[in-house]
Every structure is written in C-alpha cells, then in structure tokens.
Amino acid sequence: MKVKAERIENSQVILEVEVEPEEEERSLEEAYRRLVKKADIPGFRKGKAPRAMLERYIGREALLQEAIERLVPELLNQAIEEQELNPIAQPEVEITQTEPVTFKATVPVSPTVELGGYKEIRIDPEPVEVAEEEADKVIEQLRQQHATWVPAERPVQLDDLVTMDVEGKMGEESLDKREGIQYQVLRDFAFPVPGFSEKLVGLEKGKEVEFTISFPADHERSELAGQECWFKVLVSEIKEKKLPELNDEFAKSVSEEFETFDALREKVASNVRSMAEEQARRSYEEKAIEAVVEQAHVDFPPVLVERDIDGLISEQERELRANKMSLEDYLTRMKMSGEQLREELRPIATKRVASSLVLGKFLQEENIEVGDEEIDEEIEAMAQAVGEKGDELREFFKSPIGRQSLQQRLLTRNTVKRLVDIASGEADSTESSEEGSEVESTESPEKGSETDSTESLEKGEEEDG
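RESULT FIELD:
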C-alpha cells in the first residue's frame, strides 16, 4: 500500500492510503471464499461456484464491498503503525475511490499543550466586603420560615393562604375539581393557569364566584396556548402570615444554641462572611485557571469535545429523571432538537476540555503528587465529619475504585492550590521560606524545633477557636 500522512490542526493526522493491486486481489479472493459458502447459485452446490459465476450472480460491487470491509481496517492499522501514531479514538474513514481502492482516514492523536510563562501570572485578590444588609436578608428569611398563619376577617390579599373549593374546565373538558384545598396567593404564580392567583385577590369568604382566564399565546404547551379556561371558586378560609418579633424568644426558636437575638445575628453575620469568603476563593481559583489557560497553547482533537458533550447530556438526563422528566420531554418543552442542545453545550465542553488539559500539563510540570498518607488523612477527616456513617465511608475507600477517585480529587485540589499560590505570589514566599528554613535548621536545630512547636500550638488554638 501507498501511504501519505499529513498532520493538521486540532491534533489530527490525515492518512491517505492507496491499496496495491495484489492486496486488493488477495482481499477479493478472500471475500469470494466467504460469500460463495453462503450463496445459492443455480447449477452449483453451495460453496462450489467459480468466482466468475459468483461475481455475475451478486455483482462485482457486492464482492468489492465485502473485500473493502475487511481490507480497509487491516490496512489502516498497518498505516497507523508505520507512521508511529497513537490514536486516542476511532479514526473516521472515507472511501475516496474503488479503482484502485483508496481511502482517507482522520486519526485523532494525543493533544499538545504548551503552558507558556505561567509562573509569571499574578492576580490581585478582590477584597471581601459584606454589607450589613446581607445579614438582615438572612434574618428576614429565618423570620419568614418561623412565621405562623392566623385567620384574617377580610377579603383575600396577595401572600394569603386560602382554603377553597375549586372547579375548572377548558371547553367541555374538566381540568380539576377539588374541595378544601390550601393555596397560597402568590404574585405571578403560574399554577393552575397564569393569572389565577391574581383573580383570587378581593374575594370574600363564603362567597362563590366564577371567572375565565386564557392561557398565554406563547405558552410552552402549544395545545394550551390561547385556550380559555372557566373556574368556579368558593373560599372557605383566609389566613395571613404573622411574623415573629426579632427578640431573644425568636432567637431561641431558631436554635437552642442561641440565648439572645444578638448571638443569633452575630452567628448569621459570621456565616454570611464565611460564604462570601468561600465565593471569593472559588472566584479567584477560576480566574487563576482562566489565566493559565488563556496564555497556554492547546491543540486537541474534536472528539474530546464530543465526549464531554456526551457526559454533560448524561448528567442532564440524570437530573431530569430525578425530576420525573425525560430528555425528550425537556427538548420538546424547550422547542429544541438534540443537535441544537449539543451545539448549545459545545462552548462549555470546549472550555472544560481545554482547562482539564492545561491543568493536567501544569500538574506534570509542577510534579504534583498525592501520597498514601495524604489519602488516608483525607479519608479519616471525611469519616469524622459524617459521624455514625464513618465506618461505611472508610469501607468504601478501601476499594481500588474509591481510593483512586479520592486520589484524583486530591490531585485536582492540590493542582489548583499550587496555581493559586503562584497567581497570588505566595509560591515565591513559600519557596524562599523553605530555603531559609533549611539553612536555619542546619545552623540551629533547637531553634527550628521550637518554631515548629509554636506553629503547632498556634494552629491548635485556631482550631479550638
């Protein structure tokens, strides 16, 4: 065979292969021997017809197709070995002509990643600022959660909780008929029909009313769009929400941990700040990753993006199933085809693949590893955190799969941490500190030991606090 190889962008190699006449003839003869055993040719016992008769009976094209199906994969593997390629997925093959047999194969090979001067990346952290109003919002949410419902002797208002009998029809078709149901009258609530909630405002207890509502013209269910619905409603009870006063009794009702409202507010403010700091930390990590990816040169085959899209769709399917919905139902509701969904996910998948490849290369460059001791420490910390189920967790991580998954998670965590240290400039100070410690411990071991003890004590005090 004659092979011509051309490396193209996106880590792919195009192989153009022309089959030699003797190779084609050998394959045709083998195809004849396979097919003649199956063919019923008049005048010949099965398997005894000459090749010329078989070709006349089934056609040369059918014989050639049978030969190509075996020959092309065989020659493709030989061509890949000749060119010393390392495919990461099944090549795409196209038969370009049959006389002589010539085919083209697009072979996806290992990605290439050049990190560039990542050690020069510097990103200033954003200051964490938490407004006092943020704690007030959380307090108000707690207040809403601990509210009580009390009877109201007045017409229905928004946010009320009503008990009612309701009957609904669309044309002659009955939508619903229930008695004594509870319904909160919320603005813009779309159940059972957009606008139903607002129709209840102003109704008096014990008075039966009828009204009609039309579904929006752009309703997601086309069979309902523009349809008119009739309802008959009787409100038997109206309740309004009574919010607790913000005092010490309220704090105690939230948790026995709090004796006073001030203690509750202090804890809420601390939690709000912790959440803001965590959000800032994650945002900083994302910026550091984006920075190293932006300056890196990454070349990878499209098949990696397609695989990642498959993974994203599988995740989406699991989430939909958990909500009693299929992917087909979701696509119908979103008025989207499967291919449109893939195109929508493509930018996300492309970014994920690039980030993963760059972080993998960064991990190699920085020699980041995770030892057995670190894995064991993490397992124990996780087991302590889950309490009674700790033994189950320890048992799970005894398995090779569980331990390997945890090792991968720790590798990712350590890789991102190292990148953040570089971006923040802490890597330089840490390396300088380590060099100084080596000199200091050589000159005065006792002083070094005292420093370690002090640091351990301070760390213990922080943990106690």
